[in-house]
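Hello support,

Our group uses your service weekly, and this is the first time we've seen a run hang past the timeout. The protein is DedA family protein. I'm not sure whether the cause is the sequence or the server load. Input pasted verbatim:
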Amino acid sequence: MELISTLIDFIVHVDRHLASFVAHYGAWIYGLLFLIIFVETGLVVMPFLPGDSLLFVVGALCGAGLVNLPLVLAILLVAAILGDQCNYSIGRFIGPKVFKWEQSRFFNRRAFDAAHEFYERNGAVTIIIARFMPFVRTFAPFVAGVAEMDRAKFTLYNVIGALIWVLGITLAGYWFGNLAWVQTNLSKIIWAMIIIPGLIAIYGGWKARKAEKVKAA
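Update from on-call engineer: The timeout came from a worker crash unrelated to the input. Re-ran successfully.
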């Protein structure tokens, strides 16, 4: 429970924690940011780290002169791209191992073929949009790997998605993060960045499942 409480406090007050880290450890902040973004996007078991809010707060720290903007953008981009590539590779490696025997209880050929077809057809939208959805952005590249989405296509969409995600949210923090109204309501903004995309993802999943049931009927 203490670990969960600490994690929630870090997510909600990520601005204070990062500012404190900069004050105490200086340039090590770049290594910490790389690690957080890489782990959140690269390890399927770590979907709860604060990606969106962290990028926004980092932008605000850059606007306040505490962090170097060009350097941090480069580091975050590399972390986001490598993270998704790592996650994809893990899924690509694990998929054949888990689904080795077609008659095993873990394997469903129809579901696998459907997932593969979906990612080949809708991979661009899925990989790019998933960047802006907590939890979904961690699982999307893993599932793409399991579904054996073409690696070249995945890499292209991975890079495009990372550019839009990192540059868009970090620069938004850089331009608006230090405004008085934003500073006053930052915790609410952080919660909104977590909850709203999450609700959209849940609604999308519910709608897709409903469509499948209608199609099956």
